[in-house]
Write a structure and sequence with these properties.
It is a single chain. The chain is mostly beta strands and 143 residues long. The protein contains two helices and ten strands. The strands form two sheets. It has a five-stranded mixed β-sheet with strand order 1-8-5-2-3.
Length: 143
C-alpha cells in the first residue's frame, strides 16, 4: 500500500505542468485570436489636445481575451504602427513574468499559448503602460 501511495504521489507531481503556460512559435492551435496594437493619439495624427495633455496613447484591442485551459490558442499580435515598436509582457496573478517578446512595427507576431492553470493573466506593453494593457482569462476546458 505504501508503495502505491508513493507511486501515485510521484505520478501526480510529474503530471503537473512546470509553469502556468507553455508558449511556442509553431504548432497546432485549436483556437485563434488577433490582438492589434493601435494608436489612439499620436503626435502625427492627434488629437493635439489629447497628446498635449497625456502624450501619445496606444492600446491593445481587444483588451480582454478568454481562452480554455489546455487548449492551444494562437494569438497573433498585429502592430499597426509604422514607427513604433511595442512589446508584450505576460504576468500571472502572483506578478511573475511568464513571457516577454517584441512586437516590431508593421509586423504580425504569432505565438501559441497553452495555459495550464485557470485564472487571470495580465499583459502590458512595457513601453506604453499602464494604458496599453489587457488580460487573458483562462477558463476550464469546454465540455
Amino acid at each position: 500500500m505504501r508503495t502505491l501511495i508513493i507511486a501515485l504521489l510521484i505520478a501526480s507531481a510529474c503530471a503537473k505542468p512546470k509553469s502556468d503556460v507553455t508558449i511556442t512559435e509553431t504548432g497546432q492551435a485549436q483556437a485563434a485570436v488577433t490582438v492589434m496594437a493601435e494608436a489612439l493619439a499620436t503626435k502625427e495624427a492627434g488629437p493635439k489636445e489629447t497628446v498635449a495633455a497625456f502624450g501619445e496613447v496606444y492600446a491593445f484591442s481587444p483588451t480582454t481575451i478568454e481562452v480554455h485551459r489546455g487548449e492551444p490558442t494562437a494569438i497573433t499580435f498585429w502592430n499597426l504602427q509604422a514607427d513604433d515598436e511595442h512589446d508584450f509582457l505576460l504576468m500571472n496573478d502572483r506578478n511573475s513574468v511568464l513571457a516577454q517578446f517584441k512586437l516590431p512595427p508593421l509586423k504580425k507576431t504569432t505565438r501559441i499559448f497553452t495555459f495550464h492553470r485557470d485564472g487571470l493573466y495580465r499583459f502590458v506593453c512595457t513601453l506604453h503602460k499602464p494604458e496599453m494593457s489587457g488580460a487573458i482569462i483562462v477558463v476550464p476546458p469546454a465540455m
